[in-house]
Design a protein that fits this description.
16 helices; Rossmann fold; OxRdtase_FAD/NAD-bd; transmembrane helix; alpha/beta; five-stranded parallel beta sheet; 3 domains; Elongation Factor Tu (Ef-tu), domain 3; three-stranded antiparallel beta sheet; flavoprotein; Ferredoxin reductase family protein; iron
């Protein structure tokens, strides 16, 4: 709540500052140009806010979770596109009113005669392409690596847009404190990206020097990878979190995949457990012990940090059991674990869960059967866990299952602060 309120307050304070700068910059010859400049300023503010959301700063990530930051990033992206589109259209038509040119020729004239306008148009075109490939329909058809590579052009667009703002923005030319404000805002946003996306991962990997120690098949389609390194007791990882893993082999060093920890960090080693879902995950079985690892993270708010009750209900679906198994190891108080799978053979790490539950005095229920009928419908949840509303609920699994269970929890009256889940989506 503190982090969310802080982000809202940050955006509101900067929105007010931009409004003041806009008024101090004076008004143009007609209403269209005035509105166009207004939209451009808020487009710039939204772009800076976007950078903060994708910076993967640990303080924000631990409190909000990457899925929520990604959701806000998506909606802020729409704000960037619409405000910049309004900026381009309104400015073009506004200047066209003052000249004898039609809007298209007016836009070309602005690009040819005013410094920075051509760069701004290139930036806008890049953002349109990035927005197009980020639409759900297009995103499903692209490999993560392809989508991520295209997304990197966002930083090119940001730099081009900033140079346009420096060249012709009224906030830069109208007052010295306006100039200082925009340099500070952009410097802080880009600095956050540099620190969170480059500086911190490099520093942690140089410090911990991670490498694979063992690769253990759990079943025909599931494998666990054990990783060790130096000073792992100083790595701020918690049960329920995940890393972006790069295994530095000749054919995989450029691929980064998000995998949760499947055991609570003990200061000596880390373990991830992965289900085969393509060539990349299948290749994990062939990784040799001693392979160097570059890991970004830990990421995620799916931890015991946000507990509100002494007892907990852990609900896992399929390979979503990996962070649930790690959480069970760390959590105190009485725990009930519901593990939802289609058939017994799909219950990854079930033996470990059973032994761990017995050692901790927890209840473990293996819920099997097809997706329909829903085996975790409200009546069944209430039967298995009569004191459900008095527990924290941690949920991880396939999206359809998670959506169904979240609906059941709401129907049973479980307060929202007691429900903890994360969809492990990535921004930028």
């Amino acid at each position: 709540m503190v982090a969310r309120t802080g982000l809202y307050a940050f955006l509101a304070a900067n929105a007010a500052a931009v409004a003041v700068l806009f008024v101090q910059g004076g008004f143009a010859a007609n209403a269209l140009i005035v509105l166009g400049r207004f939209a451009g300023l808020y487009g710039a503010l939204f772009m800076a806010f976007q950078l903060l959301l994708v910076a993967r700063l640990p303080w924000l990530d631990r409190r909000l979770g990457m899925d929520r930051l990604t959701s806000w990033h998506r909606w802020t992206g729409f704000g960037v596109l619409w405000t910049l589109l309004a900026h381009v259209v309104l400015i073009t038509f506004g200047y066209a009113q003052l000249s004898s040119l039609d809007p298209l020729n007016q836009l070309l004239d602005l690009a040819e005669t005013i410094e920075g306008v051509l760069r701004a148009l290139v930036a806008f075109a890049l953002l349109l392409v990035i927005g197009g490939v980020s639409a759900r329909a297009a995103r499903r058809r692209l490999a993560y690596e392809t989508w991520h590579f295209i997304h990197l052009y966002t930083y090119v667009a940001v730099v081009l847009a900033f140079t346009h703002q420096v060249a012709v923005g009224t906030s830069f030319t109208s007052s010295s404190w306006g100039t200082a404000y925009w340099y500070t805002l952009w410097g802080a946003a880009l600095g956050a990206v540099f620190a969170g996306r480059l500086g911190l991962p490099l520093w942690r990997n140089l410090r911990h020097r991670l490498r694979v120690t063992a690769v253990v098949p759990e079943s025909d389609h599931v494998v666990s990878v054990y990783v060790t390194g130096r000073d792992l007791d100083r790595l701020p990882a918690r049960a329920g979190q995940f890393f972006l893993w790069r295994f530095l082999t000749r054919d995989r060093w450029w691929q980064a995949n998000p995998f949760s920890l499947s055991a609570a960090p003990d200061g000596r080693s880390l373990r991830l457990t992965v289900k085969t879902a393509g060539d990349g995950t299948a290749a994990l079985r062939r990784i040799e012990p001693g392979t160097r690892v570059f890991a970004e993270g830990p990421y995620g708010a799916f931890t015991a940090m946000h507990r509100t009750r002494p007892d907990a209900l852990l609900i896992a679906g399929g390979v979503g059991v990996t962070p649930i198994r790690a959480l069970l190891e760390e959590l105190s108080g009485h725990c009930v674990v519901l593990y939802r799978v289609t058939a017994d053979r799909d219950a990854v790490l079930h033996d470990e869960l059973r032994d761990l539950a017995a050692a901790k005095g927890a209840e473990l229920h293996l819920v099997t059967g097809p997706a329909v009928p829903d085996r975790l419908a409200p009546a069944e949840l209430a039967r298995l866990v009569p004191d459900l509303t008095g527990r924290d609920v941690f949920l991880c699994g396939p999206p359809p299952m998670m959506n169904a269970v979240l609906g059941s929890l709401r129907e049973l009256g479980v307060p929202a602060p007691q429900i903890h889940f994360e969809r492990f989506s990535l921004a930028g």
